[in-house]
Specification:
The protein has three helices and no strands. It is found in: Mitochondrion inner membrane; Mitochondrion membrane.
């Protein structure tokens, strides 16, 4: 019964992160935090899955490397946007 509770927790975390990501947010920082929350829930899912099937954890190390790269790229975009526009509102950022 405990394993079903853990799976439900991972699915709940993933969907809450997606719900925050797709909702209308004004700030880029909230979107970046929701992406990191989604990555964290996927990491915990892989951790439990790999422990359950008794597999090596090298895949988790590669996943953590890519998630850290994703986080640092997001923060660099946030800093460059704040330096060029003065804030992190999506309304002040034009795609053209």
């Amino acid at each position: 019964m405990l394993i079903y509770d853990i799976w439900f927790l991972f699915i709940y975390m993933f969907f809450v992160g997606n719900l925050i990501f797709v909702s209308k947010n004004k700030h880029l920082l909230v979107v970046l935090l929701s992406l990191e929350f989604i990555v964290l829930s996927i990491f915990f899912f892989f951790l439990v899955l790999l422990m359950f099937i008794d597999y090596d954890m090298y895949m988790l190390m590669a996943f953590l490397v890519f998630s850290v790269c994703e986080g640092s790229l997001g923060l660099s975009i946030l800093v460059s946007m704040i330096r060029s526009h003065g804030n992190d509102y999506f309304q002040s950022f034009s795609m053209l």
